[in-house]
Design brief:
Layout (H helix, E strand, L loop, with lengths): L1 H11 L7 H6 L2 H34 L3 H49 L3 H10 L18 H17 L2 H8 L4 H33 L4 H4 L8 H10 L5 H36 L6 H26 L5 H25 L5 H27 L43 H19 L29 H14 L2
Helix pairs in contact: 3-4, 3-10, 3-11, 3-12, 3-13, 3-14, 4-8, 4-11, 4-12, 5-8, 6-13, 6-15, 11-12, 13-14, 13-15, 14-15
């Protein structure tokens, strides 16, 4: 519903930037809050984009990880800096194609050299890797049906419905119908890609079910497991390691270029022009955008040094980016579905959401780093290892002594942020002069709520739209 109403609203109110909607619905202050959240989200995402391919190439080639990270950033900054959005679009298309082909090739060839499908799923089942019916209601269990469905839905919807990097793609299409079609294709593609990745995970488990590579010293981080698997399973096939690395780099460069481009433009439009009301010339704007791209490149390299000290890329990435994503999703949902929401309530809800989600995310990471909390891992074995390998002893910790919010599954951080923004925003709006329904423009409210609005709202609809456009034009 959020995806459909989000697309409808952007077309209905004629917005090119997703944050323009918040200014039309509330005030420029709310637009600035959402812009800062977007920038924070993208900055937190930067090191993950760089670190993953650098780690993969380091495992395959032995080249220093930091050198690889610098090269990745320099190459991406260069073609984004010189080519702009056209270079980003053209390179993205080829990079995504290479990414899909590389992962699919690894899955097919690794299956060919495996012990067969029956053995594959039998080993995975015995090893506890095929768990689809864990309905434990506890929010402290890492993966359950509820955490994956609710948390996954909230996270992916916040990324696809109210993120500028995605919305600018939808708005570039000629009609709402084609925007929805592109969303459907994207959804099917992502589902297929994630499914293939999960299947590769089963292949990895079958290969190392009797000898954990981390315990045996073959790797030093969990995140090196996939590159090791590629080298040992299909590395003897000419060109396969190179194709795999190309796929990883394609995914990284595609994401990195979009983040650099969209973040620099948001800083120009929403912060410089919108928040500070500055009116730089075209030349000054170009210099600012390109300078921002370079600065973001340095930030990405710097944060890689922090990220490599941590473990568990997926959970860390999800929990960190959920801070801003959940808050932003909550702000838009509040505006679309709660007619009485006002500027004060929305601002308080957004700030409360960001503080709570940030507290949980960073508090959890600090607790894990201090050794007070262990990440939940499935059982492993070293019985099939060659040589004298001993099973690493897990340090027992009494998790009941850890603050409850720090023990939450990382899947719940985004839904908590969304719920906080909506509930706090709605309640504060009720006690601080809620928005008059009669003066509300129905175009800024989701169509599913229109039946609850007074008929007076729909009179003078064109006047509302023109007034909103004049407001946006006067602020730029």
């Amino acid at each position: 519903m959020e995806l459909n109403t989000g697309h409808w609203l952007m077309v209905s109110v004629d917005c090119q930037a997703i944050t323009e909607y918040l200014e039309m619905r509330f005030h420029s202050v709310i637009r600035s809050i959402a812009s800062f959240m977007f920038i924070l989200d993208e900055i937190l995402f930067l090191p993950f984009i760089v670190y993953v391919p650098a780690l993969a190439l380091n495992q395959v080639s032995g080249i220093n990880l930091h050198v690889i990270a610098v090269v990745i950033v320099v190459v991406c900054v260069f073609y984004t800096f010189v080519g702009g959005i056209k270079a980003v679009v053209h390179t993205d298309a080829w990079q995504v194609l290479v990414m899909f082909l590389s992962v699919l090739a690894v899955a097919v060839l690794a299956t060919y050299y495996a012990d067969g499908w029956d053995a594959l799923f039998d080993d995975a089942s015995k090893g506890g890797r095929l768990i689809f019916t864990n309905t434990n209601p506890s929010p402290y269990v890492r993966h359950t049906v509820w955490s994956v469905l609710i948390g996954g839905f909230s996270y992916w919807t916040s990324f696809n419905a109210v993120n500028q990097t995605m919305v600018q793609r939808y708005m570039s299409l000629p009609s709402l119908k084609k925007a929805r079609a592109s969303m459907a294709i994207f959804t099917i593609g992502v589902a297929a890609f994630v499914s293939v990745c999960c299947y590769v995970g089963l292949l990895i488990f079958q290969m190392y079910k009797d000898c954990d590579p981390l315990s045996s010293g073959l790797i030093t981080h969990d995140d090196q497991l996939l590159p090791l698997f590629v080298v040992q399973s299909v590395g003897h096939i000419y060109g396969m390691p190179g194709l795999f690395i190309a796929g990883i780099f394609g995914a990284a460069l595609s994401s990195l270029s979009v983040v650099l481009n969209s973040t620099s433009l948001v800083i120009l439009e929403d912060i410089v022009r919108g928040c500070f009301k500055m009116k730089p010339s075209e030349r000054a704007s170009t210099i600012l955008v390109k300078s921002t791209i370079i600065v973001l490149g340095f930030v990405a390299i710097s944060l890689v040094f922090v990220l490599e000290q941590l473990s568990g890329i997926l959970s860390i990435c999800t929990s960190m980016t959920a801070i801003a994503a959940g808050t932003t999703f909550g702000l838009f949902t509040l505006g679309m579905l709660v007619p009485w929401a006002n500027t004060v309530g929305t601002a308080v809800g957004g700030i409360a959401s960001a503080l709570l989600a940030g507290w949980i995310s960073f508090g959890t990471q600090f607790t894990i780093a201090a050794g007070e909390l262990n990440s939940q891992k499935l059982p492993i074995s070293v019985e099939g290892c060659v040589g004298n390998v001993t099973m690493p002893q897990n340090i027992w910790v009494d998790e009941e002594q850890v603050f409850p919010l720090y023990r939450l599954s990382y899947h719940w951080i985004n839904p908590i942020g969304v719920a906080t923004a909506i509930l706090v925003g709605a309640l504060v709006s009720l006690v601080t002069k809620p928005t008059e329904m009669k003066s509300l423009d129905p175009d800024v409210i989701s169509p599913v709520i229109h039946r609850f609005l007074p008929k007076d709202c729909f009179q003078g609809r064109n006047l509302h739209a023109q007034a909103h456009k004049n407001l946006l034009n006067s602020s730029t």
